[in-house]
Amino acid sequence: MTTSLTSGPAAAPPKPGGGLNWHWLGVLPFLLFATLFLILPTAYLMVGAFQNEAGHFTLANIRGLMDDNVLNAYWISFRISAASALGGGIIGFLLAWAAVQGKLPEWIRPTLMTFSGVASNFAGVPLAFAFLATLGRVGLVTTLMRKYLGFDLYSTGFSILSFTGLTLTYLYFQIPLMVLIVSPALEGLKREWREACDCLGGSAYHYWRYVALPVLWPSIMGAMLLLFANAFGAVATAYALTGSSLNIVPILLFAQIRGDVLHNPNLGYALALGMVVITGISNAGYIWLRSKSERGRT
């Protein structure tokens, strides 16, 4: 008598049409959206940046980027983006650390995360109006400080329509965005690492210097790069708040494409192409650092 031993149920025969991967249908809306609103507009900008008004090939628009007014606009935009990314990165990291690793009441963390999710998307005309109503010449905070503290904020040279004012406005959505980005990295810090450091006689300085920061620095730097790209490409808030009083790239681009005085659409395409290159490099750096941080935690 023989006994047949089987390791499991017999494999089901392949279904007809099994070679067609229907999972691509789930990604199709994203691919369509990316093509229509990212790839095609970028290609249109690239073509327009190398054309004149007659549609002929030219390098005049690229040479126009070397104009003093254009370079000054790029420099101011770079400074505002860097300042808001640095300030938002530091403050946002401290807030996230206090909520995730700090010994705070449990309701603080979900409240902070909920607020960050809302505030990181609050921009454009509503944000500009909110800051004008708060820190404008007759804003609420400005009036209260003048009335009860005898301090005139605008006597110090401050202006909501200046470099400092726009940077403060950007911080409103930069700080919450940093909180959302860096919180998962802080959650990845294992408690056993801190306990091992304490058992070996290490202090809090040793833990952050040799354990926490080496693990977190790719996430922190990558998040700041993302904040930089986020601020560099912001146009609605800057235009609604400052109009044409501040020479930054998004406002200069708008003036070249839609303006009555500075009307050179092809130069505007070249300006936009320059912004795409700068933000693309920042986003590429963020993706690389994020992958590096994920490999470091595995």
Automatic annotation (TrEMBL):
InterPro entries (UniProt xref): MetI-like (IPR000515), MetI-like_sf (IPR035906)
Membrane protein topology class: Multi-pass membrane protein
Record keywords: Cell membrane, Membrane, Transmembrane, Transmembrane helix, Transport
Keyword check for NAD: no
Keyword Cell membrane found: yes
UniProt xrefs under SUPFAM superfamilies: MetI-like
Regions that span the bilayer: 22-50, 71-98, 118-141, 153-173, 210-229, 236-257, 269-289
Domain ABC transmembrane type-1: 74-288
Protein name stated in the entry: Spermidine/putrescine transport system permease protein
Chief site of localization: membrane
Subcellular location: Cell membrane
Recorded superkingdom: Bacteria
Lineage of source species: Bacteria, Pseudomonadati, Pseudomonadota, Betaproteobacteria, Burkholderiales
Record family assignment: Belongs to the binding-protein-dependent transport system permease family. CysTW subfamily.
